[in-house]
Amino acid sequence: MRDYTKRETYNYVLPENLIAQTPLERRDFSKMLVFDGKRQKVGEEIDIENCRRHISHKHFYDIVDYLKAGDVLVINNTRVLPARLFGFKSETGAKIEILLQKRLKLNTWKVIARPTKRLKVGTVLIFNEELSGEIKKIGEYGECEIQFKFDEMKDGVHVSFEEILDRIGLVPLPPYIHEKLKEKERYQTVYSKINGSSAAPTAGLHFTPEILKKLSDKGVIIVEILLHVGLGTFRPVKEESILNHKMHSEYIKITKEAAEEVSKAKKEGRRVFAVGTTSMRALESMAEKTSENGREFYCLKSGEMETDIFIYPPYEFKIVDCLLTNFHLPESTLLMLISAFIGLDNVMEIYKEAIENNYRFFSFGDCCLFV
Questions:
Q1: Is the pTM of this model over 0.85?
Q2: Start-to-end C-alpha separation, the chain
């Protein structure tokens, strides 16, 4: 029997040529592997042939066929910051790279600094003639706290940190992407609105305004929530037992209107589709058990919070019924999450099938739909 607490249980071999380096010309032309089979419970053996019979090979534009009137599609409207900055130490001139992770105060951020050797509290970094920063705290895994400094009034006009960042910052592509991104907007969803993420919610990259309109016209209810994706999403699980892995914390905001729409669907037994693992983590973090007329069910709370939820087998899903997601790295927390959702053996067979059919993997790759 598989040991679901061991990191190596979630390993698989991926040919390097299947790691997508650039987005397709058309967002909705990516391939979509659809799995509509039975969810596997921990300790339950699956019929591999039966699993494969429930796999269909489609394109993303076919997603309209899998949702029906009354379904709720939950999307994450976060927007990726140009969070990558290059600078040098004022004392020595040594080059340094900064990746913004999370705003702590107005101009103080948690960042990942590379390299971190010889950095100490008080070190001053210069990014350009208008922006510098001072190291206030040093943590693990290259994490630091930096207070950015700049002239907030220039020629009588107020200047914000975001304005400077837009001018000098770069989009922080994942470390497995080596090609330069030609269009910055291709690492943003078409519905991105609120700046704050260090990485894109990549399952949403496949949507186009036309697909969203078709779904809306069909009677699908589209609900926006917010989870700012941190760079911790790329942090590998290093501990042999996943129980010892410390999950990164991310900011969530769910409006009253969004919570009411999802809660009404759960009460009425209508399906909730999460677009991506970020939407799923936000929804499951804000789930709350309630009862009505003697019947218990889960609803969705509104509000703001920091979540470090870590979903792995076994896990009882409270809100999400169906999931759209990209293909994830071996031994990653995201692979553990989808293993909790449909079962690890199902995941491994689906990934084998995807590799055999030359699907493109990871951020700019193809997607899966689990219904």
A1: yes
A2: 26
Task: Please write the tens of the pLDDT for every residue from 98-155.
Answer: 999 888 998 999 999 988 877 899 999 999 999 999 999 998 778 899 999 999 877 7
Task: Compute the C-alpha angle 257/262/264, nearest 5°.
Answer: 95
What is the spatial distance between Cα 206 and Cα 197, in angstroms, rounded to a whole number?
A: 18
- C-alpha dihedral sign at 42, 340, 338, 335: negative
Structure tokens at 190: 């078409």
Here the tokens at position 351 are: 């990934």
Question: How long is the chain?
Answer: 371
Other Cβ atoms closer than 10 A to 68: 12
Residues 6+ apart with CB under 8 A from 276: 76, 201, 202, 203, 204, 324, 325, 326
Contact 158, 61 (CB under 8 A): no
Q: Summarize pLDDT for 167-218 with one digit per residue, the tens.
A: 999 988 888 999 999 998 999 999 999 999 989 999 999 999 999 999 999 9
Cα separation, 145 vs 149, in Å, equals 13
Largest CA distance in the chain: 70
Q: Which domains does the chain have, with CATH numbers?
A: 7-80+184-370 (3.40.1780.10), 84-168 (2.40.10.240)
